[in-house]
Amino acid sequence: MSDTLTEQKPKSVKPPKQKKPASLWSDAWYDLRRSKVFIIAAVMIAVLVVMSIIPGLFSSVNAFDPTTCDLTKARQGVSAAHIFGTDNQGCDTYSRVIYGARISIMVGVFSTLVTTLIGGLLGLLAGFYGRWTDTILSRVAEIFFAIPSTLGALLILALVGRENAGIWTVVVALSVLAWPMVLRIMRAAVMSAKSQDYVLAARALGAGPGRLMGRHILPNALAPVIVVATMNMGVFIAAEAALSFLGVGIQSPDISWGLMIADARNRFLQAPEALLFPALFLSLTVLAFVMLGDAVRDALDPKLR
């Protein structure tokens, strides 16, 4: 009796799906989503941004309406009607703190954009072309870099005059002396990236300067610039408050946390709330951007992986 052997066909094995090669940005986003520091900082900044865009969501009192101020209620403490008390003019401190976020955020964002664009572009050109381009741009940057940013902004605004001081003059004054630091960081990153094999291969295949800078070098040189730009927002917000406190920055009737602190400093013992609450919001805002910068740095720095 012969056994009948039944041949079974082997099961077809599907080849494993090829994963897309991980990039610096995808790895960084993966790490950021799991960073508690990043989540806390992002939530704080999101609340501040919404507060600056739509302050009416947080306060029913229009801080720019002078009829809401009552001199008979000046320097009152915390109460049900005024949860942060009132200032020297009898204005609600809480509503002024809410509306003061707009100027601080605007100065921080626009100053960062201006310095990042100017310093990043000049740093890209200096690092890529080198030679006399690098020499000229680096020497010019060193001249500006030798002047302290806050002191230089103070001098510029003093020359402009209080009657001409505003958001955009403060942005220009802070940006004029802050871009050299971004130039140095971008220049160093570009000089490191342009010596990599993929850039040399693209150059050998005939890629022009524009394609090399835009397609191969710039995406790989942005990481340190983004980290510095994130931290610079907090620095610019603090600098604006310092300039307003010294009387050369934002002027009334505009509302700024630094201006509120300056107005309340002489009557601190009678009404400490008018100084403490804007100072607290200023500190929390700067802290949020510093925390965000630390989280972004940890995510983008391959040495920390």
UniProtKB/TrEMBL annotation:
<feature type="region of interest" description="Disordered">
    <location>
        <begin position="1"/>
        <end position="21"/>
    </location>
</feature>
<feature type="domain" description="ABC transmembrane type-1">
    <location>
        <begin position="101"/>
        <end position="293"/>
    </location>
</feature>
<keyword id="KW-0812">Transmembrane</keyword>
<dbReference type="GO" id="GO:0005886">
    <property type="term" value="C:plasma membrane"/>
</dbReference>
<dbReference type="GO" id="GO:0055085">
    <property type="term" value="P:transmembrane transport"/>
</dbReference>
<keyword id="KW-0472">Membrane</keyword>
<dbReference type="InterPro" id="IPR025966">
    <property type="entry name" value="OppC_N"/>
</dbReference>
<dbReference type="Pfam" id="PF12911">
    <property type="entry name" value="OppC_N"/>
</dbReference>
<feature type="compositionally biased region" description="Basic residues">
    <location>
        <begin position="11"/>
        <end position="20"/>
    </location>
</feature>
<dbReference type="InterPro" id="IPR000515">
    <property type="entry name" value="MetI-like"/>
</dbReference>
<feature type="compositionally biased region" description="Basic and acidic residues">
    <location>
        <begin position="1"/>
        <end position="10"/>
    </location>
</feature>
<feature type="transmembrane region" description="Helical">
    <location>
        <begin position="103"/>
        <end position="128"/>
    </location>
</feature>
<feature type="transmembrane region" description="Helical">
    <location>
        <begin position="166"/>
        <end position="186"/>
    </location>
</feature>
<keyword id="KW-1003">Cell membrane</keyword>
<dbReference type="Pfam" id="PF00528">
    <property type="entry name" value="BPD_transp_1"/>
</dbReference>
<keyword id="KW-0813">Transport</keyword>
<feature type="transmembrane region" description="Helical">
    <location>
        <begin position="37"/>
        <end position="58"/>
    </location>
</feature>
<feature type="transmembrane region" description="Helical">
    <location>
        <begin position="140"/>
        <end position="160"/>
    </location>
</feature>
<protein>
    <submittedName>
        <fullName>ABC transporter permease subunit</fullName>
    </submittedName>
</protein>
<comment type="similarity">
    <text>Belongs to the binding-protein-dependent transport system permease family.</text>
</comment>
<feature type="transmembrane region" description="Helical">
    <location>
        <begin position="221"/>
        <end position="250"/>
    </location>
</feature>
<dbReference type="InterPro" id="IPR050366">
    <property type="entry name" value="BP-dependent_transpt_permease"/>
</dbReference>
<feature type="transmembrane region" description="Helical">
    <location>
        <begin position="275"/>
        <end position="296"/>
    </location>
</feature>
<dbReference type="InterPro" id="IPR035906">
    <property type="entry name" value="MetI-like_sf"/>
</dbReference>
<keyword id="KW-1133">Transmembrane helix</keyword>
